[in-house]
Design a protein that fits this description.
The structure is a homodimer. In chain A, strand 2 and strand 3 form a beta hairpin. The longest helix of chain A has 24 residues. Chain A folds into 2 domains: 64 residues, Winged helix-like DNA-binding domain superfamily/Winged helix DNA-binding domain (Arc Repressor Mutant, subunit A, Orthogonal Bundle); 139 residues, Four Helix Bundle (Hemerythrin (Met), subunit A) (Up-down Bundle). By secondary structure, chain A is mainly alpha-helical. In chain A, helix 2 packs across helix 4. The first copy, chain A, contains 10 helices and 3 strands, in the order H-H-E-H-H-E-E-H-H-H-H-H-H. At the A-B interface, helix 4, helix 5 and helix 8 of A face helix 4, helix 5 and helix 8 of B. Chain A binds a DNA duplex through helix 4. Chains A, B: This is DNA-binding GntR family transcriptional regulator.
DNA sequence: GAGCTCATATTGTTCAACAATCCTGCAATA
DNA sequence: TATTGCAGGATTGTTGAACAATATGAGCTC
């Protein structure tokens, strides 16, 4: 009986973690990176044969990898027609921002990971993005903005929320590619991040959360406007 | 050029929705239901051969279905050993509650779907659960509690948050099965739901959100205590 | 009881096959 | 010229066989 309890307790320790990704996971990793960095654009058709030949895996493995990307909304399967890199719609953009407006301000105001160190980390992230702006490095600014939001969400100290947020940020990359990677969607928001970090440094979590809600609504409106009037 | 814009606009309309689930999705649906309703218990090994023979699909299709369940955390793959129905650990329970504490109060306090009608719907859900308690229908109470929390999260009007919440609620089912489906984890929480709906009916969204945070922390502590001292 | 060997079960992945579906190009017709 | 119909080709969705690799369990010896 004692052996039973011990055996059961040990059973719950993830001693056999999947540290070695499966072939399908590896394929999905490669494709995800190509999608997120813009090499594979929205609407691009991913054929099992072509991808399988290029990456050196069988069709079954490719199908499994596709299923993973589809679950992450980075690709979409049209039955009998194929799998395509996802093309975010206005509805997607609205939902992405509804999601962000729920999560980010809540993490900022109530996240249990909030501390002076966390605020200092956010300050670093904002300062690094400022430096990229000085160097006219738009991609760096964009990356810094995403890191700011990722860091905010991580204040919740929830792996499940972190995973959702990674998916949201990946999809946001698709949205920005769709907008032609226009600096106008990244550079001006630095000042909004700066205002939020100032509130935090002044100890005003509620104010920061409210400012972030307003920021996200403005950003959404900006993107939707550009989608309708390109 | 006008044809091009029209073609592109039509392309964004999901005319080819995957209304017909694939074989793998169908298999995953069947297994998910069995896992959530407790027929397939935590730790149960799911062998490709056995499941494939039972449901009448090939091993490749079964593997795809497993991948979907694994992504939902309802199953876990141990390389070279097989796939098992997930067994939530204390760490999982903590993360589930961290996730819920972030999402549910935020949806309650800031969700754009909040309205008199929404409050009335929550009242219905609570009343239905009360009726189940009168009939000593523990499963009905448990289901009513979950419906309460699902309805709360839906106030965010975010498909991505809804999906996360469905996953969380499914995992919570696993947790409750692990606890022997003890009524003590369901029935007493009805009164907590009642208190929250009272705050909402009185127009006190912030108070309801704070009460929900406290409720979730208490529930977490209750479950963790039972896990360590069964 | 501990350690070793061998057989078996199962997994991870590939490949071939076939039915079904969709798309494209070409010919015929109005 | 524009439209329609059809055939062929490309691709998908799924199955089943095959093989290498890995883990587990049983049996045997010390």
């Amino acid at each position: 009986m004692a052996n039973r309890a011990l055996s059961e307790a040990l059973r719950q320790i993830p001693t056999r973690v999947s540290v070695q990704p499966s072939a399908a996971e590896r394929v999905a990793d490669v494709l995800r990176e190509q999608i997120v960095n813009g090499a594979l654009r929205s609407g691009t058709r991913l054929t099992e044969e072509t991808i399988g030949a290029a990456l050196g895996f069988s069709r079954n493995t490719i199908r499994e990898a596709f299923a993973l990307l589809i679950a992450e909304r980075l690709a979409a399967r049209e039955p009998n027609r194929g799998v395509f890199v996802a093309t975010p719609t206005a509805s997607d953009i609205r939902d992405l921002y509804a999601t962000r407006r729920l999560i980010e301000p809540a993490a900022l105001e109530h996240g249990i990971g909030f501390s002076h160190a966390a605020v200092a980390r956010l300050r670093e992230v904002v300062d690094a993005a400022h430096a990229c702006r000085e160097h006219e490095d738009t991609a760096g600014v964009a990356q810094g903005n995403q890191e700011f939001h990722r860091t905010v969400a991580r204040l919740a100290e929830s792996r499940r929320v972190d995973q959702l947020m990674e998916g949201v940020l990946a999809e946001m990359r698709l949205v920005f590619h769709l907008m032609g990677d226009d600096p106008g969607f990244h550079v001006p928001y630095l000042d909004r991040n700066e205002a939020i970090i100032r509130d935090l440094e002044a100890g005003d979590r509620a104010g920061a959360a409210a400012a972030l809600r307003a920021y996200l609504s403005d950003a959404e409106e900006h993107l939707l406007g550009a989608l309708h009037h390109p």
